Structures are given as C-alpha cells and as structure tokens.
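Troubleshooting entry. Yesterday's outputs looked truncated, so today I'm pasting the complete records for two proteins to confirm everything comes through intact. If either block looks cut off, that's the bug. Protein one:
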Amino acid sequence: MKSLLLILSNPRYFAPAWVFTSLNILFGTWAIYIPMVKEKLAIDKSELGIAIFFLSLGVFAIFPVAAKIINKIGVGKATWYGVLLICFSGVLPLLAPNYYTLMAALFVFGATHGFVDIAMNTLVTEIEKEDKQNFMSAAHGFFSLGGVLAGLGIFLIALIGNPVLHMIIAISLVFIVNFVFYKKYVHIIAAPVEKEAFSLKLFKPLLVIGLVSFMVMGGEGAIVDWSGLYLKEVSIAPEKLWGAGFLVFSITMTTGRFLGDSISQKIGSIKIVAFGSCIAIVGYFAVLSTQTYLAILGFGLIGLGFSVIIPELFRIGGNVKGIDSSQGVAFIAGSGYLGFLTAPPILGFLADSASLTLSFVVLLGCSVLVLLSTFILGKKKAH
C-alpha cells in the first residue's frame, strides 16, 4: 500500500502509473463494443475471431522493433508518443466501414497497444533504478483500475448511444490527464548498460523468466475465458454465480498489485514470485475441489497469487545483466502475450477432447513449474 500512496502523492510516479490506466481504459472501451461492431458489419463469430487475431498480430509485429525505437528516442519520449498514437488508433476499429478495414484498424490498434505496453514497463523499470523506489506492482494495479473504469463505461452506452462518441470521451480523458503529467517523465532515458556478447549463459535467465511469463499469463487468459464455464458445468453453480469466479479473480488481482511492492522490497523479486505461485497452487486445488464456493474462493486466491508475479517478471527482465531494459521487457511482454492468447484455445481443445477439469489440472501443473523455476532463478542470482 506504500507504493499506492507514493503514486497518489507524487506526480513523478503518478504520471507513468496513469499511462498504465490509460492503456486499459481504451482497450476496455473497445471491448465493450465488440458485439455492436459484429452486428454493424454483419460478420459471424469466425470472422470476428480472425479480425481480433489481427489485433494480436499487431501486438507481436511491434515487439521486435519496439526496444530499438525506445533506445533511439528515449523511453520517456517513446511512452508519450505511444500515448498519442494509441489515442489516435483507439477510435479506428469503431470507425471501420467494412470487415477489411476493421482488420487493418485492429492491427494498428494492436501495434500501438504493444508499443505502449513495452515503453511504460521500461519507463517504470528505469524510474525504479534511479529513485530506488518499488512501484511496478502498483503501476500494474493502475492498469487493472483502467479496466474497472472502462467497465463502468457500460452505464454511458444508453446515455450516449454512440460508440465513436463514447470512445472519443475515453480518449479525451486519457489525453488530458497525460498531457498534464507527461513532462514528469518525457525527459527520462534508459541508463546505459554494459552489453556483453550474446551467449546462452546470458540468455538463459531471460528464457526462464519468459517461460514463467508465458505460463502465468496463459493461466490468466484461461481464467478470463473458462472460469464461468467451469462454475457452470463442473461446479454446477447457479446462474447468478457463473461470473463470480472472474469477478473475485479481478478484485484480488487489483488488490494484490497495490500490496505487492512493499512485500517485494522486503523479500525480493524471486521470493515473491515463489510466494505468489504457492498461493496460486492452493487456489487451483480449491478450484479442483469442484465445490462452488470453494472454487470461487480458489479463483480469488489464483488472482492474488498471479497479481504479484507479472509485475515482478517485468522488474527482473528489465534488470538482467548485459541486456537493455527495453529488450528484457519486450521479451517478457511477448512471452506473456503469447501465453495469454494461445493458452485458452489449447485448453479448450483439451476440454473438448477430455474434460474441463483436465484443463485446470494442466494449469495447476504450470503453477508448480513456476514455483520450481524460482529455484533455478535463485541459484543463478546466487552465482
């Protein structure tokens, strides 16, 4: 909670934290109108799926070049320019007059989204290094807060009755607050890193962190997509509780991120990842009990465990010896997005061919692997 107070009391920390909020406000506002876009363009579910794939394609297309751009122009400027770009691109999918322009618009929106994601995480990493202050986890809490603010936007749908106008209001909020505060970070450049020649020894810790990111974000994506169905079909929960798993998961995820920095400062990044994975493991066992209320509690514990892991991975990835912080962050982000996007369909295939319960057993296994990976990372740090 100390890092939350730090952000709220000091513009130097609030400025980058608001970028995290901004990203999810715009993404969440677009997500609200996906059903309306489908209806407006008269496309079916498979065509919509392909269009959304172009959003993911845009995210992945920017990852290989984002670090180079950030290093060239400076992480502060890159973050501010990224905010301007996402304010421009956020409205494009809602303006698309046909299916093909929708795919193009989503590609651009995805690319700007991915760029801001890498820039803002690199920015927080650099400020933490300069100030010896931990606030990465709380900054990710502000990202979750952006999703909450976007969700509250559903109350504007009936009032405004215009998706484009709704998005313009969201963009205006994002732009005005960022415009007031961007001077607090625009001058920041990444500290020079003494680079080493590429070697497997240098890359191995980053590879381990990337695999952890893949598994944790994969688990997050699976819970977003499958928790409701699990409660309905496996726990035989009443209809009013089908969304409770995801709701509790989201609440504990946001809360945990506001508490994570102070714990990390006391015990270190690797130990907090281990601690988070242990909580998630207990959560998965509760979910696999199939008892409705115990399963809902389990989803909450998984959210609490996951909440502290991803911010720490960005912190670790941005501080790998011999690698630019932007390159480390880009690798972690890319691995995480890959997991978030690919895990749900893979687990869906498992659910179809075997059972949904088996899918969650696999997720439990992934959390155990995350715990085991912390021992590898701990040994490398000791050396």
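Protein two, checking that the full record survives here as well:
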Amino acid sequence: MLKALLATDLRHMVLAKAAVLQGWIDAGRMAPVDPVHLFFTIWAATQTYADFDVQVAAVLGKTELNAKDYARATEHVVGLILRGCGLPNS
C-alpha cells in the first residue's frame, strides 16, 4: 500500500515540481541541477536533523539540540541549497 502510494502520488508530485524547476533552469533562472535529485538532497539534509538529532548533538558537544541549533542548521541548509542552485540567499 505505502509503496504504491510512493510510486504514484509522491512520484507524480515530485515530477510535477521538478518540471517547474526544469523550466526555471531552461529559462536561466537557476543553475542546471537535476531537479529530482535536488529533492532527494533537500530531504536528506533536513531529515538528518530529525532522525539523527542525538548524533548531531553529540558531535556539537551538547546533550540535545535547541532552537538556536535548529535555526543555525536551517540557515546552513537553505544557504547551501540556494547557492548550489545559483540563487541568492535572501
């Protein structure tokens, strides 16, 4: 059931959004990246902080992450993704 949903609804949604990004790429509004893999990259980067928060906290020398840590992570991930797509970070 879940696999079928992922292979249909999620796939169609990602492909539709990737088509929008591809239009921006084709128009020169952003750097040429693989739009579908861009979604995977965003998912991976953001999911790390949710699934591995204990590991991230340990590496940062903390017992747990706080709002400031998540804000810093958000700023980092957003900036990295935008710069990688040739977009301003503003």
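Both blocks look complete. Sanity check on protein two: DSSP finds four helices and no strands in the chain.
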